[in-house]
Backbone:
């Protein structure tokens, strides 16, 4: 063996050790064509606004892609622009069949530094997972190792634009749907407003219903404490993204202030994080609820974060609704929650002809090969939602 070959081989082995190798399958995958469906924006029935100050007057069904192998099997799923601009061209140009792990390594080490690519990496791997599961004719969650066909869920909503009465009415409707808990947005005004709203929704929902709040990183530790002091008696399930997601000192400051005053509310962080190490820093800073999304470059890495959190006494929750949320939810432990975000789910769920079924605060996945949803393209077309279809080939 030459010195150069030995060095290159050692580098390759080191790289292989650095990325998550779980959920790897031996099947070779080579993609020969793809279809991309994009959708028109539609007006929301009610304008949405959260603690970031962002106002959403429109919604749209997420861009959807199908990737095909040479035998005509396909996998499908949501797709962000980086999927068809970066990763799909790589797959179509390279005729070398690879396992999903080999594609994962290639994607990660070529594009890990680019903005937005982590979500896209996970999305295209999810399509590969779907393709493999359809070939095997088994539900994808079972192929990934799930021991159950359901996950525990809660539904969040509560725009800061709602009046106190509208907020209480919206959250009460969530309870009546069969959910066990909810979450609403705070931090657009002074803490006194949100304290008042917390009192009103607690009275409307009763003492046993779980109520979390979400600041969307809008406040600092001192302002968060003003809210906690006033709302603590009403029972806060967790306080999500109270401060900026990467200000570890501010997170630690808030945790310390709560401990000193004996008003400890679990801090929840993770939706903005992209790296495993960020979650480790959260735990060291006093975060008690970790929220790894399925979009940390591979769902295997999100599960690694969940395992780390459990070992350090943290609660685990996640999000992303019907896809890929419920899929990941089956891989979590009993009682670990997936969020259904009411402002988006209420629109998109009408365009799934097959989806999970809600019963008693749990979502039961359909017994179908591959991913747990089927898109109703005919209804999307009939309602004027489809903006266009693009075709990609080798």
Residues:
């Amino acid at each position: 063996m030459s010195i150069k070959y030995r060095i290159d081989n050692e580098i390759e082995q080191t790289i292989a050790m650095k990325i998550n190798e779980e959920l790897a399958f031996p099947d070779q995958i080579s993609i020969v064509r793809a279809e991309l469906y994009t959708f028109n924006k539609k007006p929301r029935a009610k304008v949405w606004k959260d603690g970031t100050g962002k106002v959403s007057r429109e919604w749209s069904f997420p861009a959807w892609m199908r990737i095909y192998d040479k035998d005509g099997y396909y996998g499908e799923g949501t797709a962000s622009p980086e999927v068809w601009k970066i990763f799909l061209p790589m797959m179509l140009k390279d005729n070398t069949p690879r396992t999903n792990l080999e594609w994962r390594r290639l994607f990660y080490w070529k594009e890990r530094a680019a903005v937005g690519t982590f979500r896209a990496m996970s999305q295209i791997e999810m399509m590969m997972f779907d393709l493999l599961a359809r070939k095997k004719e088994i539900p994808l969650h079972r192929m990934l190792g799930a021991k159950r066909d359901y996950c525990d869920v809660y539904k969040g909503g509560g725009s800061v634009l709602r009046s106190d009465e509208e907020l209480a009415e919206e959250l009460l409707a969530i309870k009546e749907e069969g959910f066990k808990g909810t979450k609403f947005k705070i931090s657009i005004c002074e803490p006194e407003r949100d304290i008042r709203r917390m009192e009103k929704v607690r009275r409307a929902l009763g003492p046993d219903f779980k109520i979390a709040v979400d600041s969307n990183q809008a406040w600092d530790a001192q302002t968060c404490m003003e809210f906690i002091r006033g709302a603590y008696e009403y029972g806060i399930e967790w306080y999500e993204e109270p401060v900026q997601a990467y200000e570890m000192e501010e997170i630690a400051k808030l945790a310390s202030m709560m401990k000193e005053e004996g008003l400890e509310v679990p801090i929840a962080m993770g939706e903005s994080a992209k790296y495993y190490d960020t979650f480790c820093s959260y735990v060291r800073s006093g975060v008690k609820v970790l929220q790894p999304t399925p979009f940390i470059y591979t769902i295997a890495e999100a599960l690694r974060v969940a395992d780390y959190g459990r070992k350090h006494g943290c609660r685990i929750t996640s999000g992303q609704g019907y896809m890929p949320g419920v899929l990941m939810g089956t891989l979590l432990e009993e009682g670990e929650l997936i969020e259904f975000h009411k402002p988006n789910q209420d629109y998109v769920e009408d365009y799934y002809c097959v989806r999970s079924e809600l019963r008693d605060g749990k979502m039961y996945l359909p017994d179908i090969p591959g991913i747990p949803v089927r898109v109703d393209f005919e209804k999307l077309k009939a309602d004027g939602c489809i903006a266009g279809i693009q075709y990609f080939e080798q």
User: Anything to note?
Assistant: The chain has two domains: 18-140, 143-369. The first strand starts at residue 31 and ends at 39. Residues 18-140 form a domain with the Enolase-like; domain 1 fold (CATH 3.30.390.10).
